[in-house]
Amino acid sequence: MKTLILPLFLTFLLFVSGNKTACSCSCIGDNSVKQEIKNSNEVFLGEVVNIDTIKLHFHEGNIYFFRLKVDIRVISIFKGRLNSGFISVYSGIGDGDCGYSFQLGKEYLIYADFKTRHFNFSNSVQKFLYTDICKRTCELNNEELNEIMKYRKPRSPKKRAKCLINKPVDY
Asked: Is domain 24-151 in CATH 2.40.50.120, yes or no?
């Protein structure tokens, strides 16, 4: 009897997991710095001051997804309308969802886009900034910084600007 239970259980697991939709990361080509600046809504230099994993609930059933919410102290702005000294940027958590692996206390050159959906198949939410490994977001390095500065001059965020660190958005 025990020998029959294990194969039945494994068959059940394969059947259940085979019916799930899987999301995986697929980046097509590498953009030049000039092209990535053009394609991005915001390009800035910032220091990571906090990282949280947030749980996003979909109302259609008991389905949850996770995202990283990265709070960043903005140092210089190269493109966009950021006026705040602090901003939240969202990314995947990794493991095939293209999430960028930020580290607390490090400085990054961030190429980000405004989005109103966490996933193509999800409900609309309040506008937020998003980046991933398919963008040129990277840890601060002189080569990337010098390349950006060929096309854009940096500006500082306003010192008294409203803080744009967002609260987690639930569907």
From this structure: yes
